[in-house]
What does this fold into?
Amino acid sequence: MKDKTLLLIAIVTLALALLPLGFESNVVLNFLAFAMIITLAAQGWNVLGGFGGQFSFGHAAFFGTGAYGMALLQVRFGVNAWLAMPIAIALGAAVGYAIGFLSFRARLRGSYFALVTLAFAEVFRISANVWSFTGGAAGVLVPLKLDPWNMQFADKRLGYWLALALVALVLLITHRLRESRFGAQLIAIRENEDAARALGADALAVKLKAIALSGGITAAAGSLYTQKFLYLDATLAYGPWISVEALLAPIIGGIGTIFGPLLGAFLLLGLGEVTKTFFANLLGGARPGADLVVFGVLLILCVAFAPRGVLGLLARLRGRGA
Amino acid sequence: MSPLLRIEGLTKRFGGLLAVDDACLQVEAGSITGLIGPNGAGKTTLFTMIAGFAEPTQGEVFYKGERITELPTHVRTMRGIARTFQIVQPFAGLTVRENIAVGAHLRHRARADALAKAEEVAVQVGLEPLLDRPAHALTVAGRKRLELARALATEPQLLLLDEVLAGLNPSEIRDMIPVVRGIRDSGVTILIVEHVMQAVMSLCDTVYVLAEGRMIAAGPPADVARNQRVIEAYLGQGAAARLRDGAAHA
Ligand SMILES: Nc1ncnc2c1ncn2[C@@H]1O[C@H](COP(=O)(O)OP(=O)(O)OP(=O)(O)O)[C@@H](O)[C@H]1O
Ligand SMILES: [Mg+2]
It folds into this structure.
């Protein structure tokens, strides 16, 4: 069973890696690379929300910290991009630990925890918007210097493969998580925190570890975002859009599963593209926000008919068929 | 030899209510000690203070001669105190095997070892055929066994059982009594809260009686059952006298 999951991870990774070999379309490549970034952000959310049952509405705090960390380390301190990325990830993990420390120690759960994370993300966004160090409202621009040494690739496929490698790494990490004591205790806390404590789980320590890991993974997504677009402002980095996508993708794909965030990110972005095109054709012009309406409807449908996401729905249908 | 567990003057106040009032109790290593009392007497509250889920308003808890009054729950579990919940608290979305494995992980880091331990415990409490069932699909009797199994999987030295027989039918109770006795025989000391008198009488070496937060009697089960204050606590003021009169008339 364990080997089957590993095999599946290998197959999925390989298939995704081979995808861009067949064509040269920039549109598709951009879509794939962006899907990897959203997947990574969602995988981070899934560690805390999916396995740990602690729903965050503010994963932008981690994404933005990774993104700004990556940009500012390069622009302000001249740090090489390959070194900046692990530092940005560590910063995301530290922010995760700090937010976790403040809210879990105060025993915040459920909607209280969700609201507090949302508040933190907003504080970060507003601060980044006014602080000159982060470039204020004008944002921060990473100079274009196409060179693999700068983690800037002339061949867009390389950027995609880098993001895919990180996604694959997190697939392995989540797989390991499910086979570990830490993972067992985290899932137990999701199911029933008091019972988990009675069985020896140090609930606070386990949740802190989970939110740090979660923050680090989502910060990795942010750092990739910086390298892909080479521009950031407070709304891009710390805006609610990424908090929403980081939580919608796992919920739609399959919350608390290894592949849920990946599947959900593709569904979400694919649907977003379709909607945008559809409304643009229908109404004779782009309608910003139309995709958000569709996301909302999708979320409602999901909660009503597929509470365990598409993967859960598939498992249920297969169970009924057998 | 000092007792495995000793509580002294333990008190818990909820606002104006004294749920536990200056309670003392000792549990000898290797024994099955009973804690009985009418509904609302404070038995569960006493358990939560021993297990570290609630801080006492006053009083001390000693385990193996050491004061543990303020230790966090997970540290007490690590030192060998495990509890079950009167209102069962299964990990509903997990299988029986996964439920028990959470407890087993306390002393087994590797997943494979924890799963093996879970299976071993399931055999011990008679849950083996249900190992791959989701916990939410269990009957009341199954859930009670699961509570017991998870606590046992932490390999405790002191097991606190809160009404693991409540809600079971007579034949299920008959099945469970030897399981509890078997756990003691394997070297685990047990403190058990129970309303099922048949079980208390047959299992316990010593019984403590709590009524309205106060410890009103202690001793071998047969003595306690004849104790006038105990009978009155259960049946109301003057009940002992009425029972005696009734017996005299018959
Ligand atoms: N968290 C709490 N807050 C306020 N009052 C409480 C709390 N927990 C228990 N009580 C009260 O304390 C008293 C003792 O309750 P407890 O559950 O310990 O009794 P018990 O002996 O276990 O009863 P039962 O046999 O019904 O399980 C009851 O009056 C109960 O209502
Ligand atoms: Mg009780």
Q: What stands out?
A: Chain A touches chain B through 19 residues (CB under 8 Å).
